[in-house]
Amino acid sequence: MIKVGDHIPNVSVTAATADGPEAMETNVIFKGRKVVLFAVPGAFTPTCSARHLPGFVEHAEAFKAKGVDTIACIAVNDAFVMGAWARDQETEGKILMLADGSGEFARAMGLELDLVARGLGMRSQRYALVAEDGVVTFLGVEEGSAFEASKAESVLAAL
What we know:
159 residues, alpha+beta, 7-stranded mixed sheet, two-stranded antiparallel ribbon, 31% strand
């Protein structure tokens, strides 16, 4: 599992943009920037939609005030689902929505989550991190169904 002091692995992901899916490399997203990235098990799932993503949308300006260049959300979903979720949650101009369609980023981070028994396949654990120029400076990974270490308020407090 990735830890504080490690470099974010370079993986191809897909951004859900107003113009449609856009392929991106994580090294481009993180290079020379302070980035808050939070991962959710899935778009439109209960905790993710009711609490996790809305907290980052609500506090987007507070993150910018603390020097954060980009706030990004990633899930093991396709870019079309992430785009629909972005529209539903009104993230435009606040959150970069990233699709990790095959779970490659989750695996590279060592933060995959096996939800096959629940019919959801392989997903990402719920976590949040802060990275400066691609180096992790804060990492909050949730245990089980907890929702504390990765919520927006916890990340803000760590900045």
